[in-house]
Design goal:
Blueprint: H1 2-29, H2 33-66, H3 72-76, H4 78-88, E1 90-91, E2 94-95, H5 101-105, E3 109-118, E4 121-130, H6 133-167, H7 169-179, H8 186-194, H9 196-208, H10 212-230, H11 234-240
Antiparallel strand pairs: 1-2, 3-4
Helix pairs in contact: 1-2, 1-10, 2-6, 2-9, 8-10
Length: about 260
Amino acid sequence: SSGINAEYGEKTQERVVSWLYYRFKNYIFGKGIKYWFKRNSFSFAIGLTKLLYLGITIAVFYLTGEMFEYGSSTWHTYGAEWFGTHFTLYEVGRVNHTTLNKDKLFPKMVSCQIQRFGPTGLEVETAQCVLAPNVLYQYFFLITWFVLITAFFANLCSCFLHVSEMLFWRGTYERMIDDNMMSNRPRYQYVFKSIGAGGRELIQVLMSNSHPVIFTRIFDELTFRLVTKAGMDAEVLKNQFVVEDSVSPEGTLPDKLV
């Protein structure tokens, strides 16, 4: 049973390496706009998805404000006003009677007209009505406001991080080396840089769903095939990339090229 599982695992690794080799071969050696788009299309798709999340958050925040009679301008500062009240409107020894946004959006007491039949027919009376549910609605929409603001900044940071990963590959590469305890070989840097932002996204997806040892074996074999295809020898790679750490903790991987 263990032999069958090992054989199945090796075949699976071989299929993964072959599939990635076919794609990355076009990424690295293809020329022109067509192949540039292929190298970065997957990363662009992820970036557009993140922008879509950000747009949805902004749209929900704006449309929530449009539900109220006073419009979005009152809703925009709804949550911030809760924390700024004691420092702006209620100062020591003096009370400012400015109506707060929470009281504009969710008044607890309003003037209402009551129609009823009396001795002279339909009578209209003016009274003060208490809107008890608005006490709960204030806190419900306060939580909603903070959730939307938090989601907005989280999505905004996610977009900036994605753009930085697309433009600056070395940080992502070093994180891959550290997380998988891989040896820092020049051919690893060459392939990781040359496959473009889309290829690096695929590598990260594979890395997050694989055991570090399995991922290292796949990446090692993949880079060996691509460098061999490129016809680059060890000296060329060493001259192009500086290796700071060349210690391999596994010690069982074949030392191919560099």
